[in-house]
Design brief:
This protein has six helices and seven strands, in the order βαβαβαβαβαβαβ. The protein has 235 residues and is of the alpha/beta class. The chain binds NADP nicotinamide-adenine-dinucleotide phosphate.
């Protein structure tokens, strides 16, 4: 299976890429950092996997079109898209700046739309495909101290669940994933914090693999992933 993963330079996206490449998927990775993407590509190649990379800023529709077209050409098609990239700024409404609000809207909402509109025509023509959108628990439950971020993730949820209804009759599956706390850079707010209880990025990768391998006639439209253990109580 040929799958494009956004935000694959680090965090959850790199965990998803590593797991899927190990399982034999042909992966196309994108993010802004060319250097980190190259490191991922070298790592996957040294483990015997197949990987192409194309850097782009998801806030720019022309860059998205160019990077995705390059990946689709290099992989000779696309079967799945995992919209994982996102900007997590956990500030309340008193402290979030205008630029931070705009950056989250442009990355977390517009970026998902730009990516989807490039791959959908291919999937429609081939009569099938799968889009996984990474929302968040913050995209279905209020998040005090992160209202701007929550607003963008609620938008991802609404877009993703509506998209599922729009494209299912073309044989295209859409799954919305709602992770809880995952141990990535964006979730390391306090350097002294214990991170061991959090979901590992690769565990989200395993969930994506399972979602992508449901029976042809079945669709997992929503998947919530929680850490098994609660955070340790602060003394
Ligand atoms: N960590 C959690 O606990 C958690 C929980 C629920 C949901 N999520 C969601 O999971 C996703 C990944 O989060 P994460 O924790 O792995 O974050 P992360 O470690 O900060 O990684 C974010 C990824 O997105 C890419 N990215 C950011 N802005 C971009 C842009 N303008 N254009 C292209 N790529 C961009 C980054 O690459 P470059 O910087 O190289 O561009 C990076 O690869 C996000 O959508 C987040 O909302 C995270």
């Amino acid at each position: 299976m040929k799958v494009i993963i956004t935000g694959a330079s680090k965090g959850i996206g790199s965990g998803i890429a590593a797991v899927l490449a190990r399982k034999g998927y042909h992966v196309g990775l994108t993010a802004r950092s060319q250097d980190l993407l190259k490191q991922m590509q070298d790592q996957i190649a040294s483990d015997g996997g197949r990987c192409h990379i194309a850097a782009c800023d998801l806030r720019d529709p022309d860059q998205v079109q160019a990077a995705f077209s390059k990946l689709i050409e290099q992989m000779n098609g696309v079967d799945a898209l995992i919209n994982n990239a996102g900007l997590v700024i956990r500030k309340d409404v008193f402290t979030l700046s205008l630029d931070e609000w705009r950056a989250m809207v442009e990355t977390n909402i517009n970026g998902v739309f730009y990516a989807v509109r490039v791959v959908l025509p291919f999937m429609k023509r081939q009569g099938g495909g799968h889009i996984i959108n990474i929302s968040s628990i913050s995209g279905r439950l209020p998040l005090p101290g992160g209202s701007g971020y929550a607003a963008t993730k609620y938008a991802v949820t609404g877009f993703s669940e509506s998209l599922m209804q729009e494209v299912r009759d073309y044989g295209i599956k859409v799954t919305t994933i709602f992770p809880g706390s995952v141990d990535s850079e964006s979730h390391r707010h306090d350097p002294d914090e214990n991170h061991s209880w959090k979901i590992k990025p690769e565990e989200v990768g395993v969930a994506c693999h399972e979602v992508l391998n449901t029976a042809p006639g079945a669709l997992i439209s929503q998947l919530e992933i929680r850490p098994l253990h609660r955070p340790p109580q602060k003394k």
